[in-house]
């Protein structure tokens, strides 16, 4: 590793990047965050919510903090919040913060991988093509593009600066972590990329 690479890593090691649920037409896909739950419990919880709302495929993703899930169906923000609120194991802090910030964010990272795909029967609900492309790229999978997908290609990304660790009495104080982003972290900027 050369000096330039080392400086780059040092400069950006305190940042996290995630993608937002919002779509170009101001709707949202469903992004869930599950901390400290087993894959079995998360799967059972999502199967029930998938049946109740007749959702299409749900992609369960493992993470260093637990599990995340993505459904590419698009709804207005209030309906997404309702779906997330009724998802029993969903991280309620993540649900509320996303609602207040006009979009839920999932951190991107090399620690993430798709663990399971819950096949849904819903085919006609409008879906986000931009997020389909992103999921395909991040996880090296192929998702069939049906006519239910829109034609948009822009995804909103957010970069966060992690708060420096606090030390008290020689012990490191741990911040609450939500999907890899400390709750007290500061959103630096949002940017769209196609």
Write the layout of secondary structure elements.
Blueprint: H1 3-12, E1 15-20, E2 28-35, H2 39-53, E3 58-63, E4 66-75, H3 77-86, H4 92-100, E5 105-107, E6 113-118, H5 129-139, E7 155-161, E8 166-168, E9 171-173, E10 177-178, E11 181-182, E12 186-193
Antiparallel strand pairs: 1-5, 1-7, 2-4, 3-4, 3-6, 7-12, 8-9, 10-11
Explain the overall architecture.
The protein contains 5 helices and 12 strands. By secondary structure, the protein is of the alpha+beta class. It has one domain (19-193). Strands 5-1-7-12 form a 4-stranded antiparallel beta sheet. A 4-stranded antiparallel beta sheet has the order 2-4-3-6, sandwiched between helices. Strands 8-9 form a two-stranded antiparallel sheet. Helix 3 (77-86) runs antiparallel to helix 4 (92-100). The protein is globular.
Largest sheet: 4 strands, antiparallel
Order of helices and strands: HEEHEEHHEEHEEEEEE
Counted by DSSP, the helix tally is 5
Q: Supply the helix-strand structural class.
A: alpha+beta
Approximately how much beta-strand content do the residues carry?
A: 25-35%
Order of strands in the sheet with most strands = 5-1-7-12
- Apparent shape: globular
- Overall mean pLDDT stands at 83
Q: Which runs of at least 5 residues are low in confidence (pLDDT < 50)? A: 1-12, 172-190
- The N- and C-terminal alpha carbons lie at a distance of 30 Å
Q: Determine Rg (CA atoms, Å).
A: 17 Å
Number of domains: 1
Secondary structure tally: strands: 12
**Helicity, as a percent range:** 25-40%
């Amino acid at each position: 590793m050369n000096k330039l690479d080392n400086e780059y890593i040092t400069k950006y090691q305190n940042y996290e990047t995630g993608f937002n649920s919002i779509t170009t037409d101001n709707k949202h896909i469903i992004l869930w965050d599950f901390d400290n739950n087993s894959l079995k419990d998360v799967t059972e919880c999502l199967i029930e919510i998938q049946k109740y709302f007749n959702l299409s495929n749900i992609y369960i993703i493992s993470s260093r903090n637990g599990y995340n899930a993505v459904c590419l169906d698009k709804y207005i923000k209030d309906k997404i919040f309702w779906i997330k609120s009724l998802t029993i194991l969903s991280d309620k802090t993540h649900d509320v913060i996303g609602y207040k910030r006009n979009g839920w964010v999932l951190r991107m990272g090399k620690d993430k991988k798709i663990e399971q795909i819950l096949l849904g029967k819903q085919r006609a609900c409008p879906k986000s093509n931009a997020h389909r492309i992103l999921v395909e790229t991040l996880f090296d999978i192929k998702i069939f593009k049906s006519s239910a997908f829109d034609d948009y290609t822009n995804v909103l990304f957010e970069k966060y600066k992690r708060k420096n660790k606090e030390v008290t009495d020689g012990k490191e104080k741990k911040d609450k972590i939500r999907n890899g982003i400390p709750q007290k972290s500061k959103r630096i900027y949002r940017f769209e990329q196609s």
